[in-house]
Amino acid sequence: MFEVLDERLAQARAELADVLRSPAGGAGEAYARDVAADRLTRRIRRLEGAEQGLVFGRIDRADGAVLHIGRLGLRVESQELPLLVDWRAEAARPFYAATAVEPMGLRRRRHLRVEGRVVRAVSDELLDGSAPAADDVVGDGPLAEALAARRTGRMRAAVATLQAEQDAIVRSPHRGVTVVQGGPGTGKTVVALHRAAYVLYAFPDAAADGVLVLGPNARFLDYVSRVLPSLGENDVVLSTCAELAGLAPAADEPFDVARRKGSLAQAAALADLVRSRQAPGGDADVATARAAAWASGLAHNRAREVFKEHLVDAMTDALERSAAETLERIDAETAASTGLDLDAAAAADLRALGFDDAPAADPAEVFDADAVRASLMDDAHVDRRLESLWPRLTPDAVVRSLLARAPGTQWTDADLPLLDEAAELVDGPPERTFGHVVVDEAQELTAMQWRMVVRRCPARSMTLVGDFAQAGPATTASDWPQALGPHLGDRFALHTLTVGYRTTQEILASTHDLLARIAPGQAPIRSIRHGDPPRTRSTRPEALAATVAHELRAQAAAHPGDLLAVICAAGRVEGLTAAGITRWARLVPAAEARGLEFDAVVIVAPEEIVAARPSGERDLYVALTRATRRLCTIAY
Ligand SMILES: Nc1ncnc2c1ncn2[C@@H]1O[C@H](COP(=O)(O)OP(=O)(O)OP(=O)(O)O)[C@@H](O)[C@H]1O
Q1: Of 85, 362, 364, 553, which alpha carbon lies 20 to 30 A from 434's?
Q2: pLDDT tens digits along 389-408
């Protein structure tokens, strides 16, 4: 199998070298060469990415056929069955979905643990009720083994051990909006990322338009950044909402202000503001031009052109009317004062010059409407009038005007969706859109952020995962219908994950009272992990840093190699850094802990975490559910 992979890689590299060497005559050829080079480079990256854990499964069907399951598909011409089946292919489904009750035609499911190119472990499940044969290796589950592994600070793909309830969502044929909820550690992120890989494989039209994965912050994106490349998928854009807006927030603001800026009412306020700059009042001609511009459905700056054309048409008509009236008046005045019919006299003159049937001078012909129109379109006076009636706008100016902000003041995180909204109103939809959008920690999004996301997904094909018990301070919705209703109506399929794979049952049990307070009615999840009950140490405020250091030193000595984290209120970060605790542990402000995972967590001053932000109790719940093995709380 690895030989075939090597062969394919060598072939792709040789083809790429050929393509890059080939001379490109014209622009067309150069373009074709770039396209081919791009395709080959992506293929090479995909093949390279799949090498680690290339093959991880095997299914033996009751009819004797054997299939190997891996990160990508490999075929050789001489063989009827594929050498390796891509995990996303329909043929691989029984590997994830078969059970003893519903064996889906399988006799045996085998998990392989391959390190480098060597098979290190094999574990079998017999699904047809038969007794193990000599070559069946029935042992501890590969899931238990995957979970027992130490955390590295980067999430790993779970492609070999996706559980049936997760796999059903990942592989769902539903192309619209899929929502996945579930308590901490139920695998929502796992599902979201594997779903992105599945979409790229199974929905070519969505794949062609690109897949976007949105996460709450850079720390989180870094944590998940390896998963998709290790599934052979490098063509996914990972971003935060702020990055999507193309700006970096540079200022902070009170939470209640941020929350207000996130509300749907801002969309209407921005639309009203832009409309208020579109030729309010005015005469009948202005009203007609405005109606035509509105009817175009275009964004403000583009509709401005339509408005201008109609306005210039009206001005041209008016000039034409007044030219005709002037001519008639001159004729009438001449006839009255001299008794001459000017038209008849002119016709007689023309006849005398030999022009028979010379037409009477029609004012419409004397007046060259096209020329007048063209010159008005370029006229500086017209442009000035246009600018006062329908000024050209920038998103920046619109938002500053809405917020009554002086030019030059810095933008905050909550301003960015307003700028994005304003950009759509004045310049039209964003240029870059995606075929499928995955949103992790989706409970965090404000209404204005949802509008940013929806705007970038014209096909409305999305996977949204989150947990409202973990919502931060900007969130005002408390369930999916509230959060999504204004943007997607009820057009989403909701799934709930119920089994926890991260936090031990003992740690989860210690959060039940808190959960009941922050998310009444949400059923606690059941964890498949067990461990020591969480510990609490109390100390004096002035001894806090020393106690944390002491605790970490003890843990590092007792559990060398474990990934430790200290989670505290943002205001504590500086002091703890100065005390040198980053020697033993990662230091994470509670506000940035969403989605992360560590072997052991030390929570510092939980009451400070609760007090730091309006969502304090939910921040604490997030912090308490990050550890896979041990949790210690240090309070004063
Ligand atoms: N099928 C699986 N096989 C192996 N590991 C899994 C599986 N499902 C989940 N895990 C592991 O469980 C842990 C929690 O998963 P994940 O981060 O996806 O949960 P989550 O629901 O997104 O959590 P949170 O709500 O805290 O963001 C991770 O280490 C993940 O790798």
Answers
A1: 85
A2: 999 999 999 999 999 988 88
Q: Where are the domains of the chain?
A: 1-51, 53-153, 172-263+409-497, 284-389, 505-634
Same fold, 172-263+409-497 and 505-634: yes
ipTM of the complex as predicted: 0.98
Q: Phi, psi (5° rounding) for residue 466?
A: 180, -175
The amino acid occupying position 534 is P
Counting from 1 in the atom list of ligand 1, the atom nearest the Cα of 156 is: 31
Contact indicator for 484, 511 with CB cutoff of 8 Å: no
The CATH number that domain 505-634 falls under is 3.40.50.300
Percent of the chain as helix, strand, coil, to the nearest 5? 50, 15, 35
For ligand 1, what atom is nearest to the CA of residue 187?
A: 18
Q: Are 603 and 539 in contact (CB under 8 A)?
A: no
**Calpha distance 480→597 (Å, rounded):** 25
Question: Ligand 1 atom closest to Cα of 163?
Answer: 1
Handedness of CA 258, 260, 265, 270 (dihedral sign): negative
Positions of the chain with pLDDT lower than 50, given as ranges: none
| pLDDT for the residue 132 | 64
Triad 478, 483, 486: Cα angle to 5°: 140
* Model-wide pTM > 0.95: no
Ligand 1 pocket, residue 111 CB under 6 Å? no
What's the CA-to-centroid distance between 513 and ligand 1, angstroms? Answer: 23
pLDDT single digits (tens) 30-52: 888 888 898 899 889 888 877 88
* Long-range pairs of 357-361 with CB within 8 A, sequence gap ≥ 24: 361/327
The strand pairing partners of 47, in sequence order, are none
Distance of alpha carbon 45 from the chain centroid: 23
Nearest to 581 by CA among 612, 550, 622, 626: 550
Other beta carbons within 10 Å of 9: 16
Element (H, E) at 611: helix 606-612
Å from CA of 102 to ligand 1 middle: 25
Q: Which of 56, 170, 190, 227 to mutate to test the pocket of ligand 1 (most atoms within 8 A of CB)?
A: 190
Residue 500 Cα to ligand 1 midpoint, Å, equals 8
Q: Supply the DSSP symbol for 534.
A: P
Q: What is the DSSP string of 93-153?
A: HHHHH--SSS-TTEEEEEEEEEETTEEEEEEEEE-SSPPP-TT----S-HHHHHHHSPP-S
The CB of 622 under 6 Å from ligand 1? The reply is no
Superfamily the domain 172-263+409-497 falls into: P-loop containing nucleotide triphosphate hydrolases (3.40.50.300)
Annotated binding site for ATP: 182-189
